[in-house]
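User: Here's a structure from my thesis project, written as structure tokens. My advisor, Dr. K., wants to see whether a designed sequence matches the one we expressed. Can you design one independently, without my sequence as a hint?
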């Protein structure tokens, strides 16, 4: 059975799409720890990120870099932080999180509640400056 993230990448489950190419998909985390919190996935479904081939891993990071560059242009932050956990959803994904201080990367803190409009606007603004 396809993972929830495969269904998102295929458009079968809605998401706030940030960017896409042939092999990768980026979308807003539904429970963001910061505004613009984005998940980047390979479309090929692999659970553990380090089970990707070396080429797939490099391509995923290259795509994530482009997404992070776009995020930094439109979301006020000092840097975009990157994290990989993968304990909840068994489809490899990179968290990209705009940060101004260390505690912005805290996955235990209360998640933000953003309106549908706000999420859509954030995704569209990142997508608007994303360069393939
Ligand atoms: P992890 O597996 O890295 O521990 O966490 C999975 C992440 O995926 C969480 O931050 C969670 O909020 C996010 N997530 C889980 N299900 C969905 C979903 O259906 N849509 C979106 N956009 N994010 C999800």
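Assistant: Designed independently from the structure alone:
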């Amino acid at each position: 059975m396809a993972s929830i993230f495969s269904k998102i990448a295929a458009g079968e489950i809605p998401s706030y799409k940030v960017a896409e190419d042939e092999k990768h998909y980026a979308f807003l985390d539904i429970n963001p720890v910061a505004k613009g919190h984005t998940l980047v996935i390979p479309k090929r479904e692999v659970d553990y990120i380090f089970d990707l081939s070396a080429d797939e891993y490099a391509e995923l990071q290259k795509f994530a870099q482009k997404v992070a560059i776009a995020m930094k242009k439109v979301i006020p932050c000092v840097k975009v932080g990157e994290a990989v956990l993968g304990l909840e959803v068994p489809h490899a994904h990179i968290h990209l999180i705009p940060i101004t201080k260390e505690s912005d990367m805290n996955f235990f803190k209360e998640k933000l509640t953003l309106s549908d409009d706000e999420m859509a606007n954030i995704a569209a603004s990142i997508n608007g400056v994303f360069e393939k």
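When you compare it with your expressed construct, this may help: The chain is about 30% helix and 20% strand.
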